[in-house]
Amino acid sequence: MIERQIAERIRQIRKTKGMTLEQLGGKIGISRGMLSRLETNRSSPPIATLAKIAQGLEVPISLFFEESGSTTEQKYTVTRSNKRKQVVRRGSDIGFTYYAFKKPQFLYIIEAFIMKHPPSNKKLKVLFDHPGEEFILVLKGAIELVYGEEIILIETGDAIHFDPSIPHRAQNAGDIEAECIVVVAGEKSYSKSK
Fold first, then answer.
1. Of 138, 142, 137, nearest to 175 (Cα)?
2. What is the pLDDT of residue 145?
3. DSSP string across 129-162
4. For 187, which of 21, 52, 68, 131 could close a Cys bridge (C-beta 3.0–4.6 Å)?
5. Cα dist. 77→64, 103, 108 in Å?
6. Residue 70 near residue 105 (C-beta atoms within 8 A)
7. Residue 124 above 90 pLDDT?
8. What confidence score (pLDDT) does residue 45 get?
9. Among residues of the chain, what percentage have pLDDT more than 90?
10. For residues 144 and 160, what is the distance between their CA atoms, to the nearest angstrom?
11. Which domain holds residue 58?
């Protein structure tokens, strides 16, 4: 199960870097208890939380999703539509489902996902923030981006590029499932130096 792999990978990377739960939590603003629940697979992290953990561990977020022993140096990857990996399971607090794309090992500047969100009458209050940049392109349906104090409607074909350090969340704004491409760029470049 992908959630177990993510939990194990977070713990493995943290220990390899010699960090305690307290040190990582203090660095990224997440409690030791929450990190412990994530590492023991008792809680499933949303993408924003994974992005914070990746930043704190100074690794690309894709490292959490790679198959064990993957050492390819190929300069490109192709992700077939039926081979996308689900990152967050339906039924999480927000209701989003994310599917990750594979990427070449040496490229760590951006992470791309397909995000799906079913229609819902539930008004959510949780907001997320993380360093870097974020880009959302709506492929189907419509979403509202709660961005600080603003609510921005984004419909099919519309895109938004924003600073995700401002507390934010997306929510379905229609009667059909919304589907978007989400691209998150970290505050650090993980590409190799020349």
1. 142
2. 93
3. --SSEEEEEEEESEEEEEETTEEEEEETT-EEEE
4. 131
5. 17, 5, 13
6. yes
7. no
8. 83
9. 32
10. 11
11. 2-64
